[in-house]
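Severity: low
Component: inverse-folding endpoint
Summary: output formatting inconsistent between runs
Steps to reproduce: submit the following structure tokens with default settings.
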């Protein structure tokens, strides 16, 4: 009976070690995949294009629907449109990482940008390239908010 109990305890210890190590590795990978997403958020908050260059891979694209039509822009075009300073209403803007889903060296990040005039939902495709996570594509949806009523 003692051998059975010891065997069960050994198997449980192996499982606990394996799943504990896997959880730690998953946590580290989540933190690494957050880095480009956080740089993206900092780029929006500051208007500094360098944060976007840290976030995006050089060959990625924005893919979205504008006026009912499929539209794309390169990341360089997108970054080139940055003002280099925060938006005038920056204090009223909120943004956060909603989720990250990782499978091996591919991931999807969901980001919310909640601005006074609209709410954006960004879906970022990330790849782990040469050991570093980068955003390789971005698609988004904009939900316009009604203008505040005049007093």
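Observed output (run 2 of 3):
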């Amino acid at each position: 009976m003692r051998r059975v109990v010891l065997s069960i305890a050994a198997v449980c210890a192996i499982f606990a070690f394996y799943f504990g190590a896997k959880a730690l590795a998953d946590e580290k990978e989540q933190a690494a995949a957050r880095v480009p997403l956080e740089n993206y958020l900092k780029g929006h908050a500051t208007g500094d294009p360098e944060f976007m260059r840290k976030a995006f891979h050089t060959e990625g694209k924005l893919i979205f629907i504008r006026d009912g039509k499929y539209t794309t822009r390169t990341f360089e075009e997108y970054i080139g449109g940055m003002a280099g300073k925060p938006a005038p209403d920056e204090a009223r803007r909120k943004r956060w990482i909603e989720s990250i889903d990782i499978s091996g060296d591919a991931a999807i990040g969901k980001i919310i940008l909640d601005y006074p005039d609209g709410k954006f939902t960004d879906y970022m495709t990330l790849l782990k390239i040469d050991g570093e996570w980068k955003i390789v594509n971005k698609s988004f949806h904009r939900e316009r908010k009604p203008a505040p009523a005049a007093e």
